Amino acid sequence: MMHPDKLLSMTTLPLHLAELMGKPVNDIDTPALVIDLDAMKRNIGRLAEFAKKHNIRWRPHAKMHKSAALARMQIKAGAVGVCVQKTAEAEAMVAGAVYNVYISNQVIAPAKLARVAALTQRVAAHGGQIAIAVDSLEGVSRLAQAMTEARTSPREDSGAAPAATVIDVFVEIDVGQGRCGVTPGPAAVTLALEIRKHPALRFAGLQAYHGGAQHVRSALDRQAAIAQVVAAVRRTRQLIAEQGMTVGLVTGAGTGTFALETASGVYGELQAGSFLFMDRDYAANERDSAQPVFEHALFVKSQVMSVCASHAVVDAGHKSHAIDSGLPAVHGLALDYANGGDEHGILRGAVLPELGEAVWLIPGHCDPTVNLHDFMVGVRGGLQHGTVEQIIRVDARGALS
C-alpha cells in the first residue's frame, strides 16, 4: 500500500495530476511548481547535521512550504516542530497531524485568539504544544482571556470539560527588522513579568528575528548586523534574569544568518525555512563559510509557447511565481527572464530555446510563489530524466487569517 504522503486520495487530485504518478518529468504539464526531491532531501540532511553538530534546536518555518507533509518530513529528520505566521497556517498544520506549532507573530483579534486557544486544547490531546509571540500588554491580556475562556468552556466534540492547557508565550523584541516587537531591554521585562501573572500562559523566552539581515549580500555586513542583534538579546536576557525569571529559549534566525546566531551561544533554536528550497534571492547572498551549502530544489516548469528572432516566450508569468524579490532565474541556460505579464515570460539570450521546449525557472522568492499553487509535483531522479514520485498539497495556501 502506498504511503499517504506519497499520493493524496485520487478523489482529491485533479485528474491530470493523479495520472502523473510514476510518469517521466516530460509529462508534467506547464506551468507547474516542481520539487527536486533529491535536492530537498540533501538540504534537510545538511541542516539537520548542522543542528546536531552544534547542539541547537531547529524549528523550520512552514509558512514557506505551507505543506503538512513537508513539515512532517522535517520533524522526522529532527526538527522540534514548525513555525508559522498566521493562525490559519497553524490550523492547517494541526489538521495535517503536525502538533508542535509556534505562531511567531502577533495575534490580537479575539476571534483569532479563540482559535489559537482551541488549537492549544486540540494538540494537547496528542502530546503537542502551541506557542505564540506577544509584543504588548494588551496582547498578553487578550491571549490570557482567550485561554481562560477555553479552559472553562465544554469541548464541542464531547461536552467534557477541557484540560487546563497552557500556551507557551515568547516576548518578541525588535532587533532591527523595524516591524513587530518591543524595544529590547526594560519593555521586554515588563511583558515577561505580565505573562507570569496568568496561569494559562507560560513565559517561554524571547523571539528575536532580524528578517532584513537575511538578505544583506555581504557576509561581513550580515555578521555586523547579527552582532548588534546578539548584544540586544544578551542585555534583555540579563535584565529578565535579574527579575528572577529564566529565559528558557531565544528563538529566531533565518536561512541567511543562522550560523551567526548559532555561534553566538545565545540562541537555542533556529527558524530557518527557505533553506529547504533555496530561491534565487537567497542564492544571491555571498556565502558564509560556516553555513552548509544548499541547493535549488523548487522550480517552475514552463514551456516555450512562441519564438521570434529577438526572444522566446514561456507560459509562466507572474501568476506562476512571485516577483516581490525580483524575477526568476533560468535554470541551466544562458537566458535572461523578463516580465511578460500575468501569463507570459520573455526570454532573451544568444541562443534561444525552441518552440515547445521545457524551461525551468528558479523563483525569486519561494514563500509567495508556493502560495500561488494548490499542489507541488515531487520528482525523483532529476529534472531531465526523473520521474514523478509525490504530489504534495499546499495545505495552507491562502491561509491568511
Task: Give a verbal description of the structure.
The protein has 2 domains: 10-36 and 294-393, Beta Barrel (Lyase, Ornithine Decarboxylase, Chain A, domain 1); 37-283, Alanine racemase (TIM Barrel). Helix 5 (87-95) packs parallel to helix 6 (110-124) and helix 6 packs across helix 7 (137-152). The model is unreliable at 7-11 (pLDDT under 50). It is an alpha/beta fold and 401 residues long. It has helices at 15-18, 37-54, 62-65, 68-76, 87-95, 110-124, 137-152, 186-196, 219-241, 258-264, 280-283, 366-370, and strands at residues 32-36, 57-58, 82-84, 100-103, 129-134, 167-172, 201-208, 249-252, 269-270, 298-307, 312-314, 329-330, 336-339, 345-348, 358-362, 375-380, 387-393. The chain is globular and about 70 Å long. The protein contains 12 helices and 17 strands. The strands form 2 sheets. Strands 1, 10, 11, 12, 13, 14, 15, 16 and 17 form a 9-stranded mixed β-sheet that branches. Helix 7 (137-152) links the parallel strand 5 (129-134) and strand 6. The chain starts with 14 loop residues before the first helix and ends in an 8-residue tail after the last strand.
